[in-house]
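Exercise: predict the fold of this chain.
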Amino acid sequence: MAAAAAPLDRFLKAAGALGDRLGPLLVQLPPSLPYDARRAGTFFKVLRARFAGPVVCEARHASWFDDEADVALQSFKIARVAADPAVVPAAGRPGGWRGLVYRRLHGAPRMYYSAYSPAALKAMAQDIKRKKPTADYWCMFDNTASGAAAENALDLARLMARQLPGTLPGGPR
């Protein structure tokens, strides 16, 4: 993983230009990459030696959703993305470090196209309300192909403004 150090340094330098606007770093893994304790541990050690801020991992191979991988992520203070649609049931739930919840919502039933229903958004708002006191909460809509992401985000922001007034200064994240 020493080969990752130089590209990681370049990325972190560029991302650092965002200053206090920088949110969590997303480590997005390909569906073909199974969990390997040695490889993951080495990479996360390299990452953590360079970056102390919030990090989330979007794993997309089923082997990342067991206790061993979850404990490893916790040890590096890295949250696991809760994704919709989920590749396995556990992928739809947050994992890893519990101090951060990060949802990536790709649209359902048609990935990247479908808008989320008012009922689904209300359930998300209720989940945020339950977890917000104990975790930083981020919600990314990636259902952009038909333009649904912006509308879903605004609808969720309105719901959150009613449920948690004054707690989301920049809107839902």
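Check your answer against the key: The CA atoms of residues 94 and 110 lie 22 Å apart.
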